Amino acid sequence: MRHTVSTWTAATLLALGAATVAIAQPAGYTGPSNAPKAAVQGTYSGPSNVPLMTVKQLLDTGRDEQPARLQGRIVSFEGNERYTFEDATGRIIVEIDDEDFPAGQTVSAEQRVELVGEFDKGLRKTEFEVDRVILLP
After folding, report:
1. Which of 92, 73, 91, 94 is nearest to 83 (CA)?
2. What's the pLDDT tens digit per position in 16-50?
3. Which CATH number fits domain 43-135: 3.60.15.10, 3.40.50.720, 2.40.50.200, 3.40.50.300?
4. What is the model's pTM?
């Protein structure tokens, strides 16, 4: 009986692992995952006191954990929820969780977006942690 339980457990874990792989972000930049999400959340669309900055301003004067907004394009997927973001003043690595992309919409490298988030300035890495991606016209 112990062999049957072990076989069943191994088969179950293998099946769960396969399901996890099926919903992972694909290699290359193609925008957000099309995997189903648990729930669709509404978002606030009114005015904000979070400053709109350029990449250059953020890199030159930004403080660790400073909230900011950036406008430009996500130009490439680097893996592990990291993307390269670009505006007219420069580029920065941004971290975007799948659920922070607009629900039900694909973001291409040509689409202008606004990123709302927090600057992460460390000794070994500098990046922008995104809380929300907003599509711009």
Report:
1. 94
2. 444 433 344 433 355 544 444 444 456 666 778 89
3. 2.40.50.200
4. 0.69
DSSP codes of every residue in 77-134: EEETTEEEEEETTEEEEEE--GGGSPTT----TTSEEEEEEEEEE-SS-EEEEEEEEE
CB atoms within 10 A of CB 29: 17
Domain definitions of the chain by residue range: 43-135
Give the dihedral sign, CA 137/49/63/99: negative
Identify the helix (H) or strand (E) that includes residue 16: helix 2-22
DSSP classification of residue 38: S
